């Protein structure tokens, strides 16, 4: 089998990149380098006093883990040093970070990132991940401004995620299919392991936190009953699988076929996931792999963000399963 590193693959695909001048290639490789460093930190966490709470909260009011802060700093440092990106918006920061100064731009792209998704699972050694998306700036040759980040998912030029699990994988798309790379620790390189990833046409897994059912809509409850019945497309109840790390749940469903659901509830009518850092990038990846993502009404990629930390419900995965969920919501409310 031919061995292709992520750097080789990115450059082979460069002709398909929008505005291809090599900057996006370099930016994607900067993300891969930072991911390898975070992989190292995650794998030595239990030995290096970097587990546990940081003692601070992020903009969402969530307790920050030490690794949350470490991963956030590592990615921002790598992107600043790479000079192909002129700003970063992170789930862990109140506001975006602009690089460079007027008249001295650091690239024509901005990055939105969830540095360590599923961090509540860090202390119990469950898979966690990184989610990122890349937009081209609205204007060239200036530091980033907020409007550069507040673009709908249709404007994305690239998106990806890193899964830190039994192996570390980086999966990304630039709008020409989805490809996955597995880190080989012996040589310190991401190698192409999952070319042209496609979500199976039929799925048999549903992933949602059923601890929230008391606040779910009638349509959502009816769909969950459908998932548990024998009257679905598989002729038997779907398997319930919920890890609590969005990247891990999404990755499994991408490979095996399924739907991930984080709906709005009476407590959180807009859900809890963030449009820019989680929903839009995974929606872009899912659509490129033949799946679908919606907030229950709108395609995730068509939603116009109005603030950096905007939340939205998410139904994502196998297209037929997402469509069926929407039928139940439309019928039952």
- Number of individual domains: 2
> At CATH's second level, what is the architecture of the largest domain?
2-Layer Sandwich
**Which ranges are low-confidence, i.e. pLDDT below 50, for 5 or more consecutive residues?**
none
Name the CATH superfamily classification of the largest domain.
Fructose-1,6-Bisphosphatase, subunit A, domain 1
Number of helices: 8
Residues in β-strands, percent: 15-25%
The tally of beta strands, per DSSP, is: 15
CATH fold label of the largest domain: Fructose-1,6-Bisphosphatase, Chain A, domain 1
The CATH class of the largest domain is identified as Alpha Beta
Taking all Cα atoms into account, the compactness measure Rg is 19 Å
Helix content: 25-40%
- What assembly state would you assign to the polypeptide chains in this entry? single chain
Task: Explain how this protein is built.
The protein has 333 residues and is α+β, with helices and mostly antiparallel strands. It folds into two domains: 6-194, Fructose-1,6-Bisphosphatase, Chain A, domain 1, CATH 3.30.540.10; 205-332, D-Maltodextrin-Binding Protein, domain 2 (3-Layer(aba) Sandwich). 30% of the residues lie in helices and 23% in strands. The chain is built from eight helices and 15 strands. The protein has helices spanning 6-12, 23-43, 66-82, 146-149, 218-228, 246-256, 275-288, 319-332; strands at 53-57, 63-65, 87-90, 97-98, 109-117, 128-136, 156-164, 168-173, 178-184, 189-194, 205-207, 239-240, 259-262, 292-294, 314-317. An eight-stranded mixed sheet has the order 4-3-5-6-7-8-9-10, sandwiched between helices. A hairpin with a 3-residue loop joins strand 7 (156-164) and strand 8. Helix 5 (218-228) packs across helix 8 (319-332). The longest helix is centred in the first third of the chain and has 21 residues, at 23-43. It is globular, with a radius of gyration of 19 Å.
């Amino acid at each position: 089998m031919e061995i292709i590193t992520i750097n080789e693959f990115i450059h082979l695909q460069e002709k398909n990149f929008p505005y291809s001048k090599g900057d996006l290639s370099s930016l994607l490789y900067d993300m891969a380098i930072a991911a390898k460093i975070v992989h190292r930190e995650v794998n030595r966490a239990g030995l290096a006093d970097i587990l546990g709470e940081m003692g601070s909260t992020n903009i969402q009011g969530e307790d920050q883990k030490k690794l949350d802060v470490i991963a956030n700093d590592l990615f921002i440092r790598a992107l600043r040093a790479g000079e192909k990106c002129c700003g970063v918006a992170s789930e862990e920061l109140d506001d975006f970070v602009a690089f460079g100064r007027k008249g001295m731009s650091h690239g024509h792209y901005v990055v939105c990132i969830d540095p360590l998704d599923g961090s509540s699972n860090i202390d119990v050694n469950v898979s966690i991940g990184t989610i990122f998306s890349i937009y081209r700036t609205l204007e060239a040759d200036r530091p980033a401004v907020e409007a550069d980040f507040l673009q709908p998912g249709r404007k994305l030029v690239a998106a990806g995620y890193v899964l830190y699990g039994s192996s570390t994988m980086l999966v990304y798309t630039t709008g020409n299919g989805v490809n996955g790379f597995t880190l080989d620790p012996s040589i310190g390189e991401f190698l192409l392991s999952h070319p042209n990833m496609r979500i199976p046409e039929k799925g048999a897994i549903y992933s949602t936190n059923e601890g929230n059912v008391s606040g779910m809509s009638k349509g959502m409850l009816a769909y969950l009953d459908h998932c548990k019945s024998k009257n679905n497309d598989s002729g038997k109840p779907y398997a319930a699988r919920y890890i609590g790390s969005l990247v891990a749940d999404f990755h499994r469903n991408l490979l095996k076929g399924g739907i991930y659901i984080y709906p709005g509830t009476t407590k959180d009518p807009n859900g809890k996931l963030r449009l820019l850092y989680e929903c839009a990038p995974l929606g872009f990846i899912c659509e490129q792999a033949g799946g679908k993502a919606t907030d229950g009404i709108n395609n995730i990629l068509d939603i116009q963000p109005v603030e950096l930390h905007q939340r939205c419900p998410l139904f994502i995965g196998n297209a037929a399963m997402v469509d069926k969920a929407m039928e139940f919501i439309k019928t039952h409310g």
